[in-house]
TrEMBL record:
Pfam families: Phosducin. InterPro entries: Phosducin-like_chap/apop_reg, Phosducin_thioredoxin-like_dom, Thioredoxin-like_sf. Belongs to the phosducin family. The lineage of its organism: Eukaryota, Metazoa, Chordata, Craniata, Vertebrata. Residues 40-205 form the Phosducin domain. One of its GO terms (cellular component) is cytoplasm. CDD domains: Phd_like_VIAF (cd02988). This is Phosducin like 2. It comes from the Eukaryota. One of its GO terms (biological process) is protein folding.
């Protein structure tokens, strides 16, 4: 049976409205007024989140006191979010000394997806001191990577001096790269940028260097080897001709 009030909220009236027998339910005056007030309120709020910095700068002159308060609140929240994100990323920022009994916890079992660079050294070896200086600067430049150092005897007994400096690069408990001895570490005249490039090549840091600082030296060595090879081939050819 049809309800006497077509606007009454009943299941039967809803069915009749679906079939078009009853007209759509009229919105009550209170509901309409509330909707209008909400729309007006939304229109008054400036969408700071959707505005670019340039748009915010342009609109700043038009802000009233309430707008400025809202904008300052938004800007504070934005800066707080950025600071928290930066703080989360910058977990390290220094070359820390560890002992052998900390190796597993600090290096092998380090945080997930964090690159760890450990330098095994002896303070009596000048090259080790140089590497420590460079790593200390790189640790500040790349705080998202973990840099640690350890006196070699505390980690490995009877480790030979010829193998120092030794740099191991870890990620998720695996050794991703290693540089053992003076030559592999870059030589006694190792520069900061050269060590940065080496570590960037294996993925441990994200460098802003555009090319290998030793590129000119490498090119010169390749050229020298090529010229020596050509010279040797020429001598060999002349020797064969003399024999004939």
């Amino acid at each position: 049976m049809q309800s006497s009030d077509p606007n009454e909220d009943t299941e039967w009236n809803d069915i009749l409205r679906d079939f078009g027998i009853l007209p759509p339910k009229e919105e009550s005056k209170d509901e309409i007024e509330e909707m209008v007030l909400c729309l007006q309120k939304e229109a008054m709020v400036k969408p700071f989140e959707k505005m670019t910095l340039a748009q915010l700068k342009e609109a700043e002159d038009e802000f009233d006191e309430e707008d400025m308060q809202a904008f300052e609140t938004y800007r504070y929240k934005k800066r707080l979010q950025e600071w928290k994100a930066l703080k989360k990323k910058q977990n390290f920022g220094e070359l820390r000394e560890i002992s052998g009994n900390q190796y597993v916890n600090e290096v092998t079992n380090a945080e997930k997806d964090v690159w760890v660079i450990i330098h095994l050294y002896r303070s009596s070896i000048p090259m080790c001191l140089l590497v420590n200086q460079h790593l200390s600067l790189l640790a500040r430049k790349f705080p998202e990577t973990k840099f640690v150092k350890a006196i070699v005897n505390s980690c490995i007994q009877h480790y030979h001096d010829n193998c120092l400096p030794t740099i191991f690069v870890y990620k998720n408990g695996q050794i991703e790269a290693k540089f053992i001895g003076i030559i592999e570490c870059g030589g006694i005249n190792l520069k900061l940028e050269e060590l940065e490039w080496k570590l960037a090549e294996v993925g441990a840091i994200q460098t802003d260097l555009e090319e290998n600082p030793q590129k000119d030296i490498v090119d010169m060595m390749v050229s020298s080897i090529r010229n020596t090879s050509i010279h040797d081939d020429s001598d060999s050819s002349n020797s064969d001709n003399d024999t004939k």
